[in-house]
Amino acid sequence: MVDGMNRYFPDRHAGLPAFIRAARFKPVRVVHGYHMGDVDALLDRLVEEVEAGRPVRPLIDAAALRTTRWREGYDRSEVDALLAEVTRRTEV
User: Fold this and answer.
1) Residue 62 domain-assigned?
2) DSSP three-state, residue 80
3) Residue 60 is assigned to a structural domain of this protein
4) Span 16-73, pLDDT tens digits
5) What is the pTM of this model?
6) What stretch of H or E contains 27?
7) What is the count of structural domains for the chain?
8) Any domain includes 9
């Protein structure tokens, strides 16, 4: 074991929780965005799942993020890009 990881089966998701936590999205108004609370809660759950070694694809696929228009929300394309990247990194 090296730093808590088996050297023959290294943690291929190392750094992913930090990548998710560091995500920042452009706030939008007037155009449709994702509800900030929904996105923040989803990202917290993704970190938990990755740290526990569980698959995140089912969580991402089942996510029902509400949209906003007149209230401030997160840019949908940026959130979708992050979720696609997390999915890609966990399915390698």
Assistant:
1) yes
2) helix
3) yes
4) 999 999 999 999 998 999 999 999 999 999 999 999 989 999 999 999 999 998 899 9
5) 0.83
6) strand 27-28
7) 1
8) no
